[in-house]
């Protein structure tokens, strides 16, 4: 008995989704282990057990894979942050700063991707991929903005400034805090370089606390 | 009549300095034209009229050239910023924020380098080069910190937070504001992507003004 064509299409679409999810998970694992910068398309193909040419049928470039992970990261971080904010009826600016800093610092791969996206990831993919990515981030920015407006009365520009400071500094501080073992050793052993050692969460919390205190004053 | 050996050494050291300066200037010119990311060692060698193998006798890697430009950028920006701050007997936090935002936004190549340094430049050079670079930046950070302490009474940690926010966001915002002509066209023509268009100076000024108002409150 032959299956109807629609059954085959559904089976095939499902298999494609499973394969895409496996590729993204492999890229995420490697990115967590060694940093996004040092993960090649060949590494991802080896990790997922596919030939590189087969992998390219699912994602056009290495950057397309990581841009998709960045979009997933925005959705997942935004949901976690908004869950924290929605649990409150009213919040002072320090509590909001704390929620931003804690949820970002808990997501090192996302912090790495936040810095990589405008420098590298958006530059080796199709225009359509950039458009889709931007629409995801702007949608999440609007959802987060609505929560900080409800809690602190921030207008649209203030909310945009807050979210771009939080995500921009999370990316920048994570890169400074993760220079690799060789340079980190240098920082901690040379007493003149003490200020080169960066801790992401406390610094991000202080910066956002000051920003919000100044914005809501 | 033969010249003494010391004369030849001095001539040779001077010629080396002239050649190094020409290489750095060529890299800066290309970086300004097309962005640091898209400038290769081969491009720099062609611009300065040297063979690539000859250029490698002056700088070990492409990243070493741009890290040296970043160090020069720190010295030059710090001097310009401190000149503005030193001209004041007392300053409100908005005037200090304005001085940081204006001097950074006026230096697009430095903003580009600020984002590239921790992601890419510090990772393909010798440990000694990273140490020298960090000592330059920490020295300038201390000089700037002394000025903001004098004007606003910031302690060492507050000054570090201010300077890392200013330089971190200058780098991040510049990258967002400079996605290349193809993507910029997409942002300005698709009305759903209006918030993806970033202007560095006004946003940086607002963020630093709020940060300083909250810090000095």
TrEMBL record, chains A, B:
Pfam families: TetR_C_34, TetR_N. SUPFAM superfamilies: Homeodomain-like (SSF46689). Residues 40-59 bind DNA. The keyword DNA-binding applies. Signal peptide: none annotated. Keywords: DNA-binding. The keyword DNA-binding applies. It comes from Streptomyces gancidicus BKS 13-15. This is TetR family transcriptional regulator.
